[in-house]
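Board notes, transcribed. Complex of a protein with phosphoenolpyruvate.
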Amino acid sequence: MVAGNWKMNTTLQEGIQLGTQIKNALQDKQPACEVVIATPFIHLSKMAELMQDSIVKISAENCADKTSGAYTGEVSAAMVRSTGAQYTILGHSERRAYYHEDYDILRQKVLLALENGLKVIFCIGEVKEEREAGRQNEVVKAQLEGSVFNLTAEQFANITLAYEPVWAIGTGLTATPAQAQEMHAYLRSLVAEQYGQNMAEDTTILYGGSCNAKNAAELFANPDVDGGLIGGASLKADDFMTIIMAR
Ligand code: PEP
C-alpha cells in the first residue's frame, strides 16, 4: 500500500484539484499496490465520489472516540464511513503529541472505527530521545499492546500498521533502509507472537517519515517494508505518483 496523508492541507477546491491530478495520472497505470489518500474530514465525501471509478481508496485522518451525541466539533467513525471513505488513520504521532491521544483513547477509536466498517491505518513510532536511548522496540511494543493487541484476530485483519519514527516525520531525516527493515521485521515478529505466523505475513506494514520520490524505492526494496505512509510528498501529484510506482 502507498497511502498519502494530506494532514491539515488544501482547501476543498485545492483538494479536488490534487485528487483529480492523481486520478488522471493513475488512469493508464497499473500500480503494484493499493493506493489510499487520507484527507481532511470536509473533503471525504467529494473525494470518495471523485474516486468512485478509480483504484484510489479514501481515508480519514482521525475519528472520534465516542459514538455520537454532545461532543461539539467531533466526527464519528459512522459519519466517516457514511461519506464513502473506507479507511481512517489512527494514532498519528501529531495526534498523540498535540491532542494527547493516549493508549486508551486510541483503543476506543480503533474499536469504533472497526465496528463501523472502517479499516485502520494505525501509526506507531518512537521519538528521537527514545531512539537515542535504544528504546524504540519497547516503545512500539507498548503502543501495539496499548491500543490494538486487544483485538480479535478477525478484527486485527483490518489493521494496517505504519511505522513512523517521529524524528523522521516532516524533518527531512529518513530512517535508513536498514533501520526501517530492522523495525518492520520486529513488528512482524510481534504480530506473529500475538496472532500467529499467517497473520504476520498478511499484515501490511508501512514506513512513514520523510519518504519521498527519491528514497521510496530503496525503502520499499526491504522485504518487510510493504509500502509507505506519505505526508509532504503526497501533496504533489508527480512525487506521489513516483512513490506509488516505486512500490
Ligand atoms: C506523516 O505525517 O505521516 C508523514 C510520514 O509525513 P512526512 O512524509 O511529511 O514526513
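Residues 11 and 43 are 8 Å apart (CA to CA). Residues 5, 164, 169-170, 208-211, 229-233 surround phosphoenolpyruvate (CB under 6 Å).
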